[in-house]
Amino acid sequence: MLHDTSIGLRKPLDSRPDPEIHRVHAVRRLHNQSGEDELRPYRSRLKIILDILTAINEESGKISKILLYANLSYDRLMKYLKELLEKELIKEEMGEYKLTEKGYKFLEELRRAEKLAEAFGFRF
Fold first, then answer.
1. For tag attachment on the chain, is the N or C end more exposed, with fewer CB atoms within 10 Å?
2. pLDDT digits (tens, 9 = 90+) for 1-12
3. Mapped to the 3 state alphabet, what secondary structure does the chain carry?
4. In terms of residue numbers, what domain contains 71?
5. For residue 38, is it within any domain?
6. What's the CATH number where 59 sits?
7. Tens digit of pLDDT for each residue in 59-113?
8. In this structure, is residue 34 part of a structural domain?
């Protein structure tokens, strides 16, 4: 049954979303150094994990350093850290995160995979 829109009532929403409205965009808008808008693709899940592991390895295992280096919100970072802990790629010691031997090997392999993808013109 359709509602009468002439008296201000709205039609019921179709159960299927409009593909134009709910389309997922593969880019995000950033400001570059010159102040102009620039479109960049979203990072893949593996790229985010690579950034987290790199931050722990090169910067520090403190949450604040990882947040800045990996450019993630606190909630998203905690989800990734939980997964990395479960997979024994990192460990927590005295409030800081450190790479395990398994995590270090995984980081090296991710770096190799990133270089390989870039050599063929793909973005990791």
1. N
2. 455 555 555 555
3. CCCCHHHCCCCCCCCCCCCCCCCCCCEEEEECCCCCEEEEECCCHHHHHHHHHHHHHHHCCCHHHHHHHHCCCHHHHHHHHHHHHHCCCEEEECCEEEECHHHHHHHHHHHHHHHHHHHCCCCC
4. 44-119
5. no
6. 1.10.10.10
7. 889 999 999 999 999 999 999 999 999 999 999 999 999 999 999 999 999 999 9
8. no
